[in-house]
Design goal:
This protein is an alpha+beta fold and 392 residues long. 49% of the residues lie in helices and 13% in strands. A hairpin with a 2-residue loop joins β2 and β3.
């Protein structure tokens, strides 16, 4: 590096053969592929990508670009820019069969496209330049997603879309979730009798199996209870403070690395927000319920985790509520689910108010989140201060 400082290397995403009539979402910025975007010729990708996790989704928006019901929904993939290699390039190409971008596996073609992205001026002129103004908001919802998170959670084929949504209707627990599931099924029936069984297991994300203690409990919850041997009052205490469950999950699955859990929470939320993934929404919700219900971990053993989780959640809601279409989606789905956010945050704030010692950073982040949820989602009764007259 010259001038006494290291220069951060930017990366390029090459997108070959994308037809006109396709809507593209890169991180949280959406645009349509047409002649006006790139002038003459086809759009060829995005340059000047900063280091970190990125997400690219496509949706055919014209009849000429789309032939299947699945294409009504976005299909996307995560990729990670290391930033330490000059000329770093990620190459994908349009697949007519799946109507989405897929990794370019032909070595010769990949090398040709990489070379064109570096030296062909016409090819470069048809690339979109990543706007630095997009970065702060995107980093707020993706900072904990690492290359390892993407490798661990992404589907076998990397493509995230409706193909990866489970056919099990029991996973749709609220009216809006059931509505989304019915839309997927109805689209399949219109496509043909066999279409409802066409969702591929290869397209399913590898989310952590989170212990669920309510009702009959999940298999992972039953395993945890058998392993811990908790009974009686200790089992009752577990429902009041899920810290033992959280700590066991972190140690058993992630080697104690809570940043990876935050990364999965952000991964799941992006899948929900940008690909309308019901599975992503459920994983995001369950992670939040577990974390916000783990008082000892959040306030004593892992306060830095608490700060980052509360900040990440606030950033997610702020980004989602910023744009009209995303805000409508959040309003619709979270309208039915306000109770999970409200009760989770309210319960955590009550723990903060009653605790003898609370890290200042945790209290400040909790207050910021409460203010946002109260003002933007209309949820009342979210105060950090202890109120003896408040309902319990």
């Amino acid at each position: 590096a010259r001038g006494g400082g290291a220069r951060t290397a930017m990366a390029t995403l090459v997108c070959a053969d994308v037809p006109k009539g396709v809507s593209v979402t890169l991180d949280h910025h959406q645009f349509d592929v047409d002649g006006e975007l790139v002038g003459r010729g086809a759009w060829t990708g995005v340059r000047n990508l900063p280091p970190g996790a990125h997400f690219c989704a496509t949706t055919p928006t014209s009849k000429g670009a789309s032939t299947s019901w699945q294409s009504c929904f976005p299909t996307g993939f995560f990729f990670y820019v290391e930033g330490g290699v000059e000329g770093e390039c990620h190459v994908v190409e349009w697949c007519a069969e799946t109507e989405s971008l897929v990794e370019c596996v032909d070595d010769d073609r990949r090398r040709e496209l990489e070379q064109r992205s570096r030296s062909d001026l016409d090819y470069l002129s048809r690339m979109l330049r990543y706007d630095p103004a997009w970065q702060d908001a995107w980093r707020g919802v993706s900072a904990h997603i690492t290359a390892e998170t993407i490798r661990r959670v992404s589907p076998v084929g990397s493509r995230i879309g409706v193909e990866g949504e489970p056919d099990d209707p029991s996973l749709a627990s609220t009216p809006h979730e059931r509505m989304l599931e019915e839309q997927l099924r109805r689209g399949g029936r219109e496509e043909g009798a066999g279409a409802t069984t066409s969702r591929s297991r290869d397209a399913r994300c590898f989310y952590l199996d989170l212990p669920q203690l309510g009702g009959r409990g999940s298999p992972s919850a039953r395993k945890f209870l058998e392993k811990s041997g908790l009974t009686g009052s200790a089992l009752t205490a577990l429902h009041l403070d899920k810290s033992p469950v959280l700590e066991d999950l972190l140690e058993r699955e992630l080697g104690g690395n809570h940043d990876e859990l935050l990364g999965e929470m952000q991964f799941a939320f992006v899948c929900f927000l940008l690909c309308y993934s019901l599975t992503g929404f459920n994983q995001w919700k369950r992670l939040l319920v577990l974390a916000l219900g783990s008082e000892r971990s959040m306030l004593e053993t892992r306060p830095e985790f608490a700060v980052e989780l509360l900040r990440a959640l606030r950033n997610q809601l702020e980004l989602a509520l910023r744009e009209a279409e995303a805000a409508a989606l959040v309003d619709e789905v979270l309208g039915e689910e306000k109770h999970f956010l409200a009760s989770g945050i309210r319960g955590f704030l009550l723990s903060v108010a009653e605790a003898e010692v609370v890290p200042v950073a945790v209290e400040e982040e909790a207050a910021r989140l409460a203010a946002l949820v109260r003002s933007r989602l209309g949820v009342a009764g979210l105060e950090v201060e202890d109120d003896e007259d408040a309902p319990v």
